[in-house]
Design a protein that fits this description.
The protein has about 150 residues and is of the alpha+beta class. It has seven helices and four strands. Bound molecules: ribavirin triphosphate and magnesium ion. InterPro entries: NDK-like_dom (IPR034907), NDK-like_dom_sf (IPR036850), Nucleoside_diP_kinase (IPR001564), Nucleoside_diP_kinase_AS (IPR023005).
């Protein structure tokens, strides 16, 4: 089953949005398989966002993501990678549709509430840098029988 890495960013933790964000993915029908409330080190931030190294916003991005605790999660389900990205909305909250997480709760690109893996390859990479294999829990949810 497909898995993705999602993270409630420091702005959203400060604004008490962890529950709201978790709730959206739960209600959609995805399954939480791992979660961690943590502070990201500079080294982890640079590894996580390595594709953006050298871009003008990179230093600010690293400062922001390390500025306070985040809630890192692994979610599982059918097409969870692309569906979670749709539920998040566009990178710039001004362009994100109402009804998406960034559209409903974000104002600016540099504080855009949530991170989500953008491909199967980045999901695998991001899950492995944030979680040990034994921190991901395999379990059966009977509600799954009603989804697909
Ligand atoms: P994320 O990786 O955080 O889920 O965001 P994303 O895929 O929607 O956007 P991405 O292109 O990966 O950019 C990563 C984060 O960098 C900041 N950013 N600033 N032009 C800019 O000033 C700019 N572009 C990107 C955003 O905070 C974005 O979430
Ligand atoms: Mg990205």
């Amino acid at each position: 089953m497909e898995r993705t890495f999602l993270m409630v960013k420091p702005d959203a933790v400060q604004r008490n949005l962890i529950g709201e964000i978790v709730s959206r993915f739960e209600r959609k029908g995805f399954k939480l398989v791992g979660a961690k409330f943590m502070k990201i080190t500079n080294e982890l931030a640079e590894t996580h966002y390595q594709e953006h190294k050298g871009k003008p916003f990179f230093d600010n991005l690293v400062s922001f993501i390390t500025s306070g605790p985040v809630f890192a999660m692994v979610w599982e389900g059918k097409e969870v990678i692309t569906t979670a990205r749709k539920m998040m909305g566009k990178t710039n909250p001004q362009e994100a549709e109402t009804g998406t997480i960034r559209g409903d709760f974000g104002l600016v690109t540099h504080r855009n509430v949530i991170h989500g893996s953008d491909s199967e390859q980045s999901a695998k990479r991001e899950i492995s840098i944030f979680f040990q294999e034994n921190e991901l829990i395999e379990y059966k949810k009977t509600v799954d029988d009603w989804l697909a």
